[in-house]
Amino acid sequence: MLQGFAVEDKYDGIRAQAHIAPASSDHHLLLHGDIFAGIRVALFSRTLDEITPAFPDLVRPLASMTLSAFGMGTSAGVILDGEIVPFRDDRILPFQELQKRLGRKTLSDELLRSVPVAFIAYDILYQDGRVLIEVDVVITAAEVGTGKRSRFLSDYTFAMRASEDDPTLLNVGKAYSGLTDAEVQELSDWLKQHTLQEFAHGRVRTVEPKIVLEVTFDRVAEPVLAGVSTCFIAHHHPEGVPPGDTLITAYTWNPIPNTSWLVWQLCQQIAEVSDLDWMAAIGTLSDLGDRAPFDLLTTAKRKYTGKYLKEATALINAARRAAHYQPDLAATALLNHADPKSLVNSSRPEVEQLRQDREAVKRELEVARKVAPIFAGKVALLRLNSPCQIHPLCSKLARSPAQLCGDCCQ
User: Fold this and answer.
1) How many CA atoms lie within 13 A of 264 on its CB side?
2) CA-to-CA distance for 177 and 187, rounded, in angstroms?
3) Within 59-123, where are the H helices?
4) What is the pLDDT of residues 79-137, one digit of tens each?
5) Count of CB atoms situated within 10 Å of the CB of 104
6) Cα 195 to chain center, whole Å?
7) Which of 198, 236, 257, 383 could join 261 via S-S bond, C-beta 3.0 to 4.6 A?
């Protein structure tokens, strides 16, 4: 029998950095942020886009920190990592309230009063000229990737210092995802120029340990919560499931279903989820396409009409294909609507943002359509450089099944 439990607060807002420093004499139009009482405050999203104009009511409280927090001289300043949350009467409000302030070009005084916010600081990243980040790693070796990244050094071995006092680097793991194609190419070029040794005809290289990365891990080696069994559901075959936990996967099925379909089928055994079939259908359309061989898709098309299902799918996908990558918008849109028709016809802020994202992706695709292909027999190479994730869509631009997009296929 479980003898205890652990509870940790989840701050449901948006991750942000607060950069705070005494205002310099530099031209104010060339710098980020706003100034209050001689202190400049700039707010940035997790993608390092400036979001200060969206939260002007945070400038004054952040600028009112004690001056000793900033340090002295030209290096004075502090960078905080934290979460912006809707906050009123000493209570954090639902995330949906914060959505009312996102994606707006102007904020009325009434909106600022109705949805006040707070900045909850998690960590100090920088203070008075000192970088205080410890939990980062440094690349010590790199290996040529596979598939569309077989031309680049895209698999990285990383190391940490043995201790705070011992600078000896100890390799602790490898990473090969999380960077855009443009970032991989830029990093690959740098690693080739800073190679120490080559192995396997240049496919593996040790490199100068100068590139610092922040890493997150998806390999589960320890229990999620001590003493509590966990069930993992996926259509892939994840590694590192802790002993005693359960893995439900459709990895060996033919055809392999998508995860949303699998979760919906399992949930039917323990709850009434018939009204959520449209979400499973959207996931199926997104992953497997219109001809996926599952009865769920056929039934959902009759129930909701294929038009609204496809429109809703396009909107939901726009969140992950857009340049700024905000999948939480898609999740919020799904949770706030009862069916695909209400989502498609909605005027809620998150759906308006999804529409803007979709249009941005469409514009990038229009540019891609004008790219002249380079032919080699029955293969066409399209050279693209886009901030949006349009490469998986580019195969649709080919004139025949034998022609492939060079940036996403080999």
Assistant:
1) 21
2) 13
3) 59-63, 95-99, 109-114
4) 998 999 999 888 888 888 888 887 777 788 888 898 999 999 988 888 888 877 667 78
5) 14
6) 30
7) 257
Tokens of 368: 């891609």
pLDDT 10s digits, 135-154: 778 899 998 887 677 788 98
CA angle 154, 152, 321 (to 5 degrees): 70
DSSP H or E run through 299: helix 295-304
Strand 117-127 relative to strand 78-88, pairing: antiparallel
Q: How far is CA 121 from CA 10, 16, 92, 305, in A?
A: 13, 9, 14, 46
Question: Is the pLDDT at 408 greater than 60, yes or no?
Answer: no
And the tokens for 197?
């040794």
Sequence-ordered alpha helix ranges (H) in 3-158? 59-63, 95-99, 109-114
H helices within 139-198, ranges in order? 181-193
Return the bridge partners of 22, or none: 39
Q: Which amino acid is at 279?
A: M
Q: How far apart, in whole angstroms, are the C-alpha atoms of residue 40 and residue 33? A: 6
Mention every residue, 6+ apart, whose C-beta is less than 8 A from residue 20. 39, 40, 41, 42, 62, 63, 65, 69, 70, 77, 78, 79, 80
Q: What is the pLDDT of residues 54-76, one digit of tens each?
A: 899 999 999 998 877 887 777 88
> Cα separations (Å) of 57 from 14, 45, 93, 109, 139?
16, 16, 16, 10, 40
Residue 258 DSSP label: P
Q: What pTM value is reported for the model?
A: 0.45
- 8-state DSSP, 236: S
At 185, list the tokens.
């190419």
243 token code pair: 């002993």
